[in-house]
Amino acid sequence: MTTIKLKRTRAPHVSLAHLVALVIVACSVYLMVDFGIRAASLFQAHQRAAEVEQQLAEQIALRDRLQRRLEYVQSDAYVEEVARTQLKWSRPGETVVVILSPPDAPSSVPETAPLAPPETTLDSSSWLNWWFLFFDVAPPRIF
Predict the structure, then answer these.
(1) What CA–CA distance (Å, rounded) separates 23 from 139?
(2) In terms of Cα–Cα distance, which of 88, 116, 121, 112 is closest to 102?
């Protein structure tokens, strides 16, 4: 009879050093990923804080402008300005003079030489009305 010898296969032998190294590598990878995630969220939080600080500065500037405007509107100077410019009021003893714009085609005035209004970019033409009231020529062009 022949005897057959069976070879025993050995289970892979894992040393303690290999096991410790594997645990250290796994923990290191986990910590690196966690650090990256936290760093990214911290960066986003800093960006959001900078945006909020910018908005806060804008709102503070707006509040300051509105506060100054409120103080001005509640002052006597504002009341007098509105009364004189918009309401055309005057103080006792003063006379309000309102200059009307010259009509486009005057029928009662003989046409001698038409006065060409100067080309101006100013919104308010009240000073032109005064000029034409006192002088018969257009004002000199300075600019």
Answers:
(1) 93
(2) 116
Phi-psi region of 125 (alpha: psi -120 to 50; beta: other; left: phi over 0): alpha
Query: Do residues 96 and 106 touch, judged by C-beta distance below 8 A?
Result: no
Q: Which two tokens stand for residue 91?
A: 């103080």
Q: For residues 80 and 89, is the Cβ–Cβ distance under 8 A? A: no
SS3 59: helix
Is residue 61 within 8 A of residue 54, CB to CB? The reply is no
Residues 26-78: tens digit of each pLDDT: 999 999 999 999 999 999 999 999 999 999 999 999 999 999 999 999 999 99
Give domain limits for the chain.
16-76, 99-143
Distance of alpha carbon 40 from alpha carbon 46, whole angstroms: 10
DSSP code of residue 104:
S
CA distance 139 to 132: 8
pTM: 0.44
Enter the DSSP assignment of 137. Answer: S
